[in-house]
């Protein structure tokens, strides 16, 4: 199983919100990285350093899905901006849009 590690700089905060159902310490992660991730059943793990979230460890499939969702949101924003600028809508599949294909498409 491939694992991507997302690193976020977080401010030390007594009431910091943890954005994961599973947590582990940096020490636990060092001792058994694959076991730490496996124990979360495919979910993200918040890695704590002195009881403060230092970063999140995210399985590869979840990370890839997150990146795809972010790409989709960017495409939505680009589409809205183009429509707001008066560009004519063009019908195409999301797959073609992701590939940047603008060749043979039908206009509405």
Explain this structure:
With 108 residues, this protein is α+β, with helices and mostly antiparallel strands. It folds into two domains: 3-60, no CATH class; 63-107, no CATH class. The protein has helices spanning 26-31, 33-38, 60-84, 94-99, and strands at residues 3-7, 22-25, 45-49, 52-59, 90-91, 106-107. The chain has a four-stranded mixed β-sheet. The protein has a two-stranded antiparallel sheet with strand order 5-6. Mean pLDDT is 82; it is low at 1-10 and 103-108.
Overview features:
108 residues, alpha+beta, 2 domains, two-stranded antiparallel sheet, 4 helices, 6 strands, disordered N terminus, disordered C terminus
Extended strand count: 6
Overall mean pLDDT stands at 82
Order of the strands making up the biggest sheet: 1-4-3-2
As residue ranges, the low-confidence spans are 1-10, 103-108
The percent of residues in helical segments reads 25-40%
Q: Using the alpha-carbon principal axes, give the shape.
A: elongated
Count of distinct structural domains? 2
CA radius of gyration: 20 Å
The main pleated sheet reads as: 4 strands, mixed
Alpha-carbon distance between the termini? 44 Å
User: What is the N-to-C order of secondary-structure elements (H for helix, E for strand)?
Assistant: EEHHEEHEHE
Question: Which percent band covers the strand fraction?
Answer: 15-25%
Count helical runs. 4
* SS class: alpha+beta
């Amino acid at each position: 199983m491939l694992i991507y590690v997302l690193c976020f700089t977080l401010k030390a905060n007594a009431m910091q919100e943890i954005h994961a159902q599973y947590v582990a310490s940096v020490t636990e992660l060092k001792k058994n990285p694959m076991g730490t991730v496996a124990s979360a059943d495919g979910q993200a793990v918040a890695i704590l350093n002195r009881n403060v979230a230092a970063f999140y460890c995210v399985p590869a499939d979840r990370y890839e899905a997150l990146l795809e969702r972010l790409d989709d949101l960017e495409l939505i924003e680009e589409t809205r901006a183009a429509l707001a600028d008066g560009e004519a809508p063009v019908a195409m599949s999301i797959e073609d849009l992701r590939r940047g294909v603008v060749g043979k498409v039908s206009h509405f």
